[in-house]
């Protein structure tokens, strides 16, 4: 394997910057290939830094034109410059001005970091280390500066010019066809929050009055002609701002808030101060082009980026190891927002499904790392489910442990103390320790220890004494770099449920007034008294901790929870646990008595009969079996994806047959009541109807096909149209091919819709799919340079198509390896993300495992890999 020479950055090596930059004046003359940037930096030595240190600025692929110190151009021997750095050995020990002129080529920038072009427009992406691709800088999050940006461009090319902060001046440059705009951001910020945009863009706007009565102009900029597709995003922005005022007391702090949608973007969106830049898929929506899920994602991501204004921007991170300080907390905030705007329990189930599918998976594979990592080779590779999603779970657990009121008081104190600073996880926890008087040092282990804790629980009822005892044991498996683990502080929200569902007045002194037991040792036990009949324990209500639970209860008892638990999450969980037991056993070739499957189907049928109507979205979730990937994760070793696929298909068929009467009823009754609306209640009806269609088709393919064809033709919105096409893709034959072709034709000029079409085809669990994917790479709408297209077609194939990516002959792995190498030359971040699909290779059966290893090695031995890909491939093979 190739030797990795990339230096490792370590948390323990952190030291303050030797210099500070109080203000930055940037003058950017936009040009497609020769953009000129003049940066004027007001600098001074940092009293907390070393007094003899040289001034070493970061760069990346930069071309230096000139550098001047206090207005005097420096001679060549007075500094050292390369595309990667600019060093002045003898920098002044008093405040000074450094003026640097660089030239950059936005058109050649395919990495989509720094200044680049998307759809002919200019835009920037600076997190984490992209600002150094614009000018030489102290490109680290603990250097905070006030920015003034002057942007100049051809008026015809870029009539719209946007920067951070407030607009302060604009005008024409006489006789040149050029114009300029000046933006000033009064809030000191790190360079990763810098942004500018120049281009031809349409705009929608509205005025927002903040809680203290200030007027803020909210605007969204999109491709001209698509303005009305931004209405939902603008509405979501306004709701987010109101929510943050109401729930966290946080007010917006500039005169304008701008959002720009671009079509080439590596991630979801970016929280640049006052100028959020979004992947257009998380802004643009119309009933004809977007699904209910798209609307929900738009709402969540608009909120997420807006919430960063306080958790990320006003309080930023001291260093990149603290990434979870802004990301975990902001995900928690956006989840709370979505829960308040929609159905809390349905949303919680969705959050947990994502957490398990992505974060538990990551935590059990070669890329496992702590929520606050202690070292990295490439920071771009740490924008992970662990930092984001598990990071959010930690904040949620903290709130569960200390309670709502103290949580709010702690947040207030955190904002008060840390506003305007670059903070750490310790600063965050200290605010909560101080308001509650609690010692949170044991809790802090959640940030340090990687791996998903397992909790084993045993229950014992003593009918004579009317007590019920629960014994808990915890352990966390070894993960890379962490062979041994300590016990975690695990909040267990719990209760007891009687078999007949009637309330049990049992009590336990170890359970607090919010129903939470804090399990913080390797083993512990608690006893309930006053238990008048045999109960079923309902544990980890609302998924109170990100752990894997095993509870040795028979299926019939678990199904009591589906029927009677007051906690909706655990009702859903009970059905999932039973389904998972049956599916895992079947996939492993174990004998599962038909009676057990029948009992499960009957429980589902009676749930559908009794409760489904009340909350259709919840019912749709209960009726959806664990995914093939979830089953693989549960099995954990020697996985045969084909066996899993067969077991799950068979179970879907059986459920479809035994619940057919209810499913047909839902299919007929859960129709749209009026014109399309993306609200949660309407979306819930559609989801139950479409989940019913899916099960009906599994039970009776030809009847299902007929229903799906009819729905595809008559659908009035993308949710229903796509759901019917999705059902058709599971049914091979001419009808499917015809439907797929017509859909592709109908949306040929709608890239975001074609992405869904790419994904559907890439996830067909049949042998021809790899060839189909290769064929689709030739489609005129496909582009290897556009991350959305690549992820929709190739990312989905690798991440979602269990049987075809993990083909027994290794062709899926070899294909992905070739794409990773190809994309690495253009866009290393994209390549590295695709490569994470190999995270499950070690859990496959041996033939697949060796094919995967060979594919990984073929990547590893290539010369000149990017740092992004080099890092992932070497960790995947370790
Ligand atoms: N801070 C953003 C995520 C983000 C990170 C890196 C990027 O560079 C390509 C872009 C966006 C967020 O959490 O929304
Ligand atoms: Zn974020």
TrEMBL record:
CDD domains for this protein: M1_APN (cd09600)
GO biological process, one term: proteolysis
Keywords for the protein's UniProt record, in alphabetical order: Aminopeptidase, Hydrolase, Metal-binding, Metalloprotease, Protease, Zinc
Residues annotated as domain Peptidase M1 membrane alanine aminopeptidase: 232-445
E.C. no: 3.4.11.2
Keyword set includes Manganese: no
Cleavable signal peptide: none
Domain Aminopeptidase N-like N-terminal positions: 25-193
Domain Peptidase M1 alanyl aminopeptidase Ig-like fold: 451-550
Annotated InterPro entries: Aminopeptidase_N-like_N, Aminopeptidase_N-like_N_sf, PepN_Ig-like_sf, Peptidase_M1, Peptidase_M1_dom, Peptidase_M1_pepN, Peptidase_M1_pepN_C, Peptidase_M1_pepN_C_sf
Domain Peptidase M1 alanyl aminopeptidase C-terminal: 556-878
Reaction catalysed by this enzyme: Release of an N-terminal amino acid, Xaa-|-Yaa- from a peptide, amide or arylamide. Xaa is preferably Ala, but may be most amino acids including Pro (slow action). When a terminal hydrophobic residue is followed by a prolyl residue, the two may be released as an intact Xaa-Pro dipeptide
GO molecular function, one term: metallopeptidase activity
Co-factor requirement: Zn(2+)
Enzyme class: hydrolase
Coiled coil spans: none
One matching Pfam family: DUF3458
Similarity annotation: Belongs to the peptidase M1 family.
Function: Aminopeptidase N is involved in the degradation of intracellular peptides generated by protein breakdown during normal growth as well as in response to nutrient starvation.
Record's protein name: Aminopeptidase N
Organism: Microvirga mediterraneensis
Gene field: pepN
């Amino acid at each position: 394997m190739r030797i990795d020479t990339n230096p490792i950055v370590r948390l323990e090596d952190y030291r303050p910057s030797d210099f500070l930059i109080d203000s930055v004046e940037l003058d950017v003359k936009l040009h497609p290939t020769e953009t000129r940037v003049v940066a004027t930096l007001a600098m001074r030595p940092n009293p907390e830094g070393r007094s003899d240190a040289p001034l070493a600025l970061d760069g990346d692929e930069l071309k230096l034109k000139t550098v001047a110190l206090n207005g005097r151009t420096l001679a060549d021997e007075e500094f050292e410059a390369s595309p990667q750095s600019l060093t002045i050995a003898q920098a002044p020990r008093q405040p000074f001005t450094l003026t640097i002129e660089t030239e950059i080529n936005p058109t050649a920038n395919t990495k989509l970091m720094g200044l680049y072009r998307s759809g002919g427009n200019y835009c920037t992406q600076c997190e984490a280390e992209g600002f150094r691709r614009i000018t030489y800088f102290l490109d680290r999050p603990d250097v905070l500066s006030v920015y003034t940006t002057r942007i100049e461009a051809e008026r015809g090319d870029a009539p719209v010019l946007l920067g951070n902060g407030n607009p302060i001046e604009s005008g024409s440059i006489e006789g040149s066809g050029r114009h300029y705009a000046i933006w000033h951001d009064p809030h000191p910020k790190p360079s990763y929050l810098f942004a500018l945009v120049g281009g031809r863009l349409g705009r929608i706007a509205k005025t927002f009055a903040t809680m203290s009565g200030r007027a803020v102009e909210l605007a969204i900029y999109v491709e001209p002609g698509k303005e009305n597709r931004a209405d939902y995003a603008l509405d979501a922005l306004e709701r987010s701002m109101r929510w943050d005022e109401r729930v966290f007391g946080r007010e917006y702090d500039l005169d304008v808030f701008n959002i720009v949608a671009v079509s080439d973007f590596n991630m979801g969106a970016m929280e640049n101060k006052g100028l959020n830049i979004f992947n257009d898929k998380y802004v643009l929506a119309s009933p004809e082009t977007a699904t209910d899920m798209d609307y929900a994602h738009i709402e969540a991501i608009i909120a997420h980026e807006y919430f960063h204004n306080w958790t990320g921007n006003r309080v930023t991170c001291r260093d990149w190891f603290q990434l979870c300080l802004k990301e975990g907390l902001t995900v928690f905030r956006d989840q709370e927002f979505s829960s308040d705007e929609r159905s809390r329990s349905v949303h919680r189930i969705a959050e947990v499904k994502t957490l398990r599918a992505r974060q538990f998976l990551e935590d059990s594979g070669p890329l496992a790392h702590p929520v606050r990592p202690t070292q990295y080779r490439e920071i771009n590779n740490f924008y992970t489910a662990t930092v984001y999603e598990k990071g959010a779970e930690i904040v949620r657990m903290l709130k569960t442990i200390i309670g709502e009121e103290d949580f709010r008081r702690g947040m207030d104190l955190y904002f008060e103390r840390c506003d305007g600073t670059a903070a750490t996880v310790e600063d965050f926890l200290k605010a909560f320790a101080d308001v509650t008087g609690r010692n949170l040092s044991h809790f802090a282990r959640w940030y340090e220890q990687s791996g998903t804790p397992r909790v084993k629980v045993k229950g014992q009822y003593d009918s004579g004494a009317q007590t019920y005892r629960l014994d808990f044991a915890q352990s966390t498996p070894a993960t890379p770099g962490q062979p041994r683990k300590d016990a975690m502080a695990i909040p267990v929200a719990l209760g007891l449920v009687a078999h007949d569902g009637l309330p049990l007045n049992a009590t336990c002194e170890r359970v607090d007034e919010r129903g939470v037991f804090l399990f913080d040792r390797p083993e512990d036990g608690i006893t309930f008294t006053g238990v008048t009949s045999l109960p079923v324990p309902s544990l980890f209500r609302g998924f109170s901790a990100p752990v894997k639970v095993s509870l040795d209860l028979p299926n019939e008892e678990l199904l009591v929870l589906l029927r009677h638990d007051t906690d909706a999450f655990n009702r859903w969980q009970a059905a999932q646990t039973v389904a998972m037991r049956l599916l895992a056993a079947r996939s492993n070739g174990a004998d599962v008595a038909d009676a057990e499957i029948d009992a499960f189907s009957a429980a589902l049928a009676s749930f559908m009969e009794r409760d489904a109507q009340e909350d259709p979205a919840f019912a749709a979730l209960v009726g959806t079996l664990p995914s093939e990937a979830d089953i693989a994760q549960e099995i954990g070793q020697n996985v045969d994806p084909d066996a899993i696929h067969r077991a799950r298909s068979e179970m879907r068929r059986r459920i479809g047959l035994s619940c057919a009467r209810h499913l047909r009823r839902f299919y007929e009754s859960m129709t749209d009541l009026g014109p399309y609306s993306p609200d949660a209640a309407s979306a819930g009806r559609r989801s139950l109807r479409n989940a019913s269609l899916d099960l009906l088709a599994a039970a009776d393919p030809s009847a299902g096909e007929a229903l799906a064809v009819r729905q595809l033709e008559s659908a009035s919105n993308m949710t229903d149209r796509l759901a019917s096409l999705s059902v058709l893709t599971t049914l091979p034959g001419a009808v499917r091919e015809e439907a797929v072709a017509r859909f592709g034709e109908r949306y040929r000029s709608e890239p975001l819709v074609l992405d869904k079409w790419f994904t559907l085809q890439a996830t067909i669990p049949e042998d021809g799919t790899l060839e189909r994917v290769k064929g689709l790479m030739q489609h005129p709408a496909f582009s290897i340079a556009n991350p959305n297209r690549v992820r929709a077609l190739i990312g989905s194939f690798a991440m979602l198509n269990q049987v075809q990516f993990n083909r027994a002959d290794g062709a899926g792995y070899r294909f992905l390896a070739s794409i990773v190498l190809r994309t690495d030359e253009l866009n290393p971040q994209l390549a590295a993300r695709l490569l994470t699909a190999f995270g499950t290779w070690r859990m496959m059966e041996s033939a697949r495992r060796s094919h995967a290893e060979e594919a990984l090695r073929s990547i590893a031995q290539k010369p000149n890999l990017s740092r992004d890909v080099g890092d992932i491939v070497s960790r995947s093979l370790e």
